[in-house]
Design brief:
The chain is of the alpha+beta class. The chain is about 20% helix and about 10% strand. The protein is elongated, with a radius of gyration of 17 Å.
């Protein structure tokens, strides 16, 4: 529920610009952000024109002044934090003679 409210307060979806067959992709669902802030640039984020009827019109906009939705081509720091948290990765662990390799390390 908290993630739903967070998304709805940070990003506005313009459903009239989304193809009807793709509206499922913009339904708000419960997610676990693993105690990280909303990541406008996440590699997992849709770009502003994904599933758009007209690519000149965005399907979503950031509501926070100064923030822009810009899907990254690489994992962001927050993406890496989430992966490490999800898989309980601790880079200080040593197995044999090798340190555990975590995302971003």
């Amino acid at each position: 529920m908290l993630a739903q409210v967070l998304f709805a307060s940070l990003v506005f979806c313009l459903s009239n610009f989304i193809g009807t067959e793709y509206r499922f992709a913009y339904q708000i669902e419960d997610t676990n952000n693993l105690n990280t802030p909303y990541d406008y640039g996440s590699i997992m984020h849709y770009s502003t024109t994904y599933f758009a009827i007209d690519l000149r019109k965005p399907t979503m906009v950031a509501l926070t002044p100064g923030k822009h939705i810009a899907r990254s081509s690489q994992m962001t720091l927050i993406d890496k934090q989430r992966v490490n948290s999800l898989y309980q990765c601790d880079p200080s662990i040593v197995i044999g003679k090798s340190k555990v390799s975590c995302a971003g390390s």
